[in-house]
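Morning - dihydroflavine-adenine dinucleotide inputs below, output right after.
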Amino acid sequence: KADTNHEAVVIGTGYGAAVAALRLGQRGIRTTMLEMGQLWDEPGPDGKIFCPMLNPDRRAMWFKDRTEAPLETLLGLPIVNRPIERYAGVLDKVHFAEMAVYLGRGVGGGSLVNGGMAVTPKREYFEEVLPDVDADEMYGKFFPLANKTLRVNTIRPAFLESTSWYQYARTARRQAANAGFGTQVIPNVYDFAHMEGEARGTKPKSALAGEVIYGNNHGKMSLDKTYLADALATGNVTIKTLHHVKRIQQHQDGYLLTVEQRDPFGKLLNTKKISCRHLFLGAGSLGTTELLLRARDNGDLPNLSDEIGRGWGPNGNVMTARTMIGGFQQSGMPVLAIDAWQDHEVFAEIAPVPAGVETLASLYLAITKNPERGTFHYDRGTDGITLDWRREQMKPSIRAVRGVFDEMNRTNLSTYRPDLFGIGKVFSDDFTYHPLGGCLLGRATDEYGRVRGHKNLYVTDGSLIGGSIGANPFVSITALAERNLSRITATDLNH
Ligand code: FDA
């Protein structure tokens, strides 16, 4: 029997989903969030919620036999990753034929595992990517609102310039300047007052213990501490964890969901039917696109358009590393980026290598402007999705990254590191942290994320943005969701 009590259901608890839940809750609309991952608030036997970076355990990854950290080798040796028990851990790596995607799993989605870099994109590029969105309104209202609600803050200049924990960033900045490239201080959602306490020894260490991709035990203002806490405080929002939505069907003037509830070891506990009037998809670029493709191709939501699945891109992500003395103390939270967008179409975050030893490596996650796009397809055989994306589509990104880092190496007498991404490989172009697209705004949906062909169905996450945003994406995803929800709550849900 269907659980029919739901006015609105939000699938997922990442950025777009959290905005939807807060704004619906504030309007007095009873809202249920369904999240396939866990709520991360209970310490394990070691007293910590998340496992250590350098000694990961089952909490690290989403049902894997081995950790899959992006740096595979150190000095060419496969010593970074290790066997773990299969469990509902916090970081997932989804493998397609020629591209892999890292994702956060749990209440807070990507906010649990990401580097916290809170970048408002360059207005000119935002207008190029989303020409039909009113940029005045975004930059005057919704970007400031997103930054404020996410509790974005900026490192104190005196701390940045003096602490040994950011020597790696200062050295990379100087070397960038030698090569003629400018850098920027990047705001973050990590609480820098807490970090300074970590450095003084008065606060428990998290960023300064190298924590990031397997979760931060302290200091990070992930969504569970901001948007989702505010949403729960309205009294109208509930979150159901370890609830994986598998199927969406039309049901009267709303939707019927088939949801699998599992335990953290993967055992199926229950298959539920949940119906709702308004359905918000915030399952991320991969999750939302998969649900809609399955619904379209199985005939559950037959009016969905051919646009579903199209326009996907990895935000031009390329990881690379150079030789450099960075120091053995490295904060896990990046705070500087090389901004070579104007001349080279590269915006490269200066990333830490928080190994606790001198690795002689300077690491970068470069975001590049890459016009190539991929397409998702539903595969009836596996009941999953495939991604039509070929490795060679990363060529424009590699060319752009070479334009910056060949010059960095030439002027600073450094070389690329061939021992971090597998032996001999100097550019890692086969994974992304920034999946974007699959249900594009204005194509698969209308200009506010209303899915074309079916009423009361909305997309609210990174799948709305067509493959590239020129900066780390979560502030853009949040601000766009704010804009769309402000319209939808005023018009579609006004009662
Ligand atoms: P998001 O992926 O956050 O959330 C989707 C949620 O839905 C997840 O919790 C998932 O478990 C759940 N879900 C999926 N399918 C479901 C289903 N069928 N049923 C129920 N639940 C389902 N960005 C940035 O701006 N600055 C940064 O520093 C970084 N750094 C970074 C590092 C790493 C390691 C990663 C993996 C990512 C980043 N990012 C980043 C990217 C950023 O985290 C990402 O763009 C956003 O989290 C995407 O937000 P969404 O709302 O689209 O979905």
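Note: The first helix runs from residue 15 to 26.

O.
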